[in-house]
Amino acid sequence: MNQVKAKWDREPRWPAVIALLASGGLYMALPPSLVAGPRWVLPAIILALVIPTVISHRVGRHALNHWLGLIVTSVVTIAMILSLIYLVAALPSHKEAPRELLRSAASLWITNVLVFALWYWRLDAGGPNQRDLNAAHTEGAFLFPQMTLDNTGTAPIPESRWSPNFVDYLFVAFNTSTALSPTDAPVLARWAKLLMMVQATISLAVIVLLAARAVNIL
Predict the structure, then answer these.
(1) Which residues make Cβ contacts (< 8 Å) with residue 99, sequence separation at least 6?
(2) Cα–Cα–Cα angle for 46, 73, 179, nearest 5°?
(3) Could you tell me which of 198, 175, 217 has the C-alpha nearest to residue 78?
(4) Range with the poorest average pLDDT among 43-57, 64-78, 110-124, 204-218
C-alpha cells in the first residue's frame, strides 16, 4: 500500500490539469468567428469539470475521476474540431486577416497536441489510476523505449519499474503533429492508431491551410 502511494506521489496530475487550462486559454485567443458562442464558455466548462476531477482523485473516487476526465477531454476535443471547421469555412471568403489566421492556426495546432496527449494519457493501459496500481508499465498501447530496459538502462527485460507520465504522452502527441507519425514509441493498440490518424489529419489540415493561405497572399 505504501509503495503504491509513493508511486502515486511521483506521478502528479498537475501537468494534465495545466494542459486542460492551457487549452481553454488558447481557445480564448481565437477570434469570435472561430468559436461557438462566447469565448469564455469553454474555459468556464473546463474549470467547472477540472475542480471535481481533481477532488475525486484526491479522495480516491477513481471511477468518477476517470469519467470526469473523459468528459472534459471530450468537451475540449469537440470545441477544437468546431473551431477547425469554422477556420476552413472562413478561408474562401478571406474573412480572417493574415495575422489572425496565423494566430488561430497556431492556437489550434498547439491545442491539437495537448488534446491528444490527454487522450493517450487517459486511455493507455486503463488510464493513470490503473497504471498507478502496477509496479511497472510492461504493456500498453505504446511501446516506450524504457519498457525494454532494466533500471540500468541496458538490459532488455520487462521487470523495469519505469512508468510513463503525462510528459511522455505529450512527447508522443508532439511527434505525431510534427512528423505526422510516431517516432520513438511504436503504436500497438488499434484505438491508439486510429487516434493518431485523426491527430495527424488535423495537424496536416492546419499546416496545409496555412500554406494555401500564404501562397494566396503572395
Answers:
(1) none
(2) 125
(3) 198
(4) 204-218
Cα-based angle 206, 207, 210 (whole degrees, multiple of 5) = 85
Cell of 143: 511501446
Q: How confident is the model at residue 213 (pLDDT cuts 50, 70, 90)?
A: low
CA distances from 79 to 9, 23, 139, 213 (A): 32, 10, 32, 23
Q: Cβ of 134: how many Cβ atoms within 10 Å?
A: 16
For residues 63-75, give the mean pLDDT.
94
Question: How far does Cα 117 stand from its chain's mean position?
Answer: 3
Angle between helix axes 98-123 and 190-217 (nearest 10 degrees) is 170
Q: Is the CB of residue 156 less than 8 Å from the CB of residue 148?
A: yes
pLDDT at residue 121 tops 70 = yes
Whole-angstrom distance, CA of residue 103 vs CA of residue 107: 6
Domain ranges of the chain: 2-217
Amino acid at 154: T
